[in-house]
Amino acid sequence: LNRRLAEFGTTIFAEMSALALSTGSINLGQGFPDTDGPEEIREAAVRALRDGRGNQYPPGPGIPELRTAIAAHQERRYGLTYDPDTEVLVTAGATEAIAAALLALLEPGDEVIALEPYYDSYAACIAMAGGTRVPVTLRPHESSFRLDLDELRDAVTDRTRLLLINTPHNPTGTVLTREELTAIAALAVERDLLVVTDEVYEHLVFDDAEHIPLATLPGMRDRTVTIGSAGKSFSFTGWKVGWVTAPRELVSAVRSAKQFLTYVASGPFQYAVAEALRLPETYFEEFRADMRAKRDLLAGGLEQAGFKVFRPAGTYFITTDIRPLGESDGFAFCRALPERCGVVAIPNAVFYDHREQGAPFVRFAFCKRTTVLEEAASRLKTPT
Ligand code: PMP
Ligand code: GLN
Predict the structure, then answer these.
(1) Which GO terms describe its molecular function (predicted)?
(2) What are the sequence ranges of the domains in the chain?
(3) Is there a cis peptide before residue 64, judged by omega within 30 degrees of 0?
(4) Ligand 2 close to Cβ of residue 13 (< 6 A)
(5) For 146-191, how does the pLDDT look when each residue is reduced to its tens digit (9 = 90+)?
(6) Measured from the CB, is residue 120 less than 6 Å from ligand 2?
(7) pTM summary value
(8) Are the folds of 12-37+282-381 and 39-277 the same?
(9) Which ligand lies nearest the alpha carbon of 165?
(10) Is 238:30 a contact under the CB 8 Å cutoff?
(11) Position in ligand 1 atom list of the atom nearest CA 96
């Protein structure tokens, strides 16, 4: 393994899902729903397969039907207009979109500012692109993790090329407010930075929180690459269909890298995702309401078990603080948890460069059936 990748080892998600399997534990680690997305969308995939649509290489940038549906979704929800032919790119999941964007837009030595804790692939992709990551830490406040705008500003140097933003944020569940996004946008404009914004949890915001795409802020459309995922929005994480929307030059750059990573994303699923993006608003409302109820169920269980819970405004993850349990090392806690009570979770420290900052935090995924969450809550309450 080369020096660029040596520090990364095996992703925590593979390690923890293997641990869940080998110990027969409830897997609240890796974030994937245990209920698949809508039946009619699965049927659409089967129809495409049977009709021979997409069984051979689809067009490199994605099938026109899907690119049109992505553009229509951005327009309908956010008033953002993108030309489906030149400003939309279909990728093999958001994971490939992140990789292709960073590989295409960074020069070796460029600095990338990322919100810490950060999704693990960001660090690896910045490294593969020869860039340098500059983490800006979200700090725990009473009920949520927040960005310190002065710290963000201070992190920008003459070498900064790009801001890598994620809202709703994995793993903290923070949804950036309009005020925070306005400050990020002003900084990007002032320092002439590109922005890659991972908005895969755009449909998972709860209560009063609102998802505001960074590209909608003044001066941002022209410098922003926005990333979405059918895995997250429609509960088909195994299909690996994601997308990028951005101005023409940026999409063209990302496409240059993407064509040599996978060339294209899988064909029949693209037809199905095009239909999914056209589902009526009731689908998204029900999806949100269902996840909100699951959030409340697991948050309540974790609180009763003694955790401090940061109730997330978005995503399907809850970050907890384990110090009220008399614990301080999230790694040790997560490694012992399957034995103690048959539940798997993720130590947030893996998402930090400043590991000590993340040490006492542990993430639980709540995209699971109610009965599974109830059982997990009861096991967490009575560890053996
Ligand atoms: N970004 C974030 C913040 C994620 O949580 C995930 C999924 N875990 C991804 C990107 C990757 O999405 P996909 O499965 O579409 O590749
Ligand atoms: N995004 C998912 C999570 O945060 C995992 C995706 C993966 O396994 N790479 O849990």
Answers:
(1) transaminase activity
(2) 12-37+282-381, 39-277
(3) no
(4) yes
(5) 999 999 999 999 999 999 999 999 999 999 999 999 999 999 999 9
(6) no
(7) 0.97
(8) no
(9) 1
(10) no
(11) 16
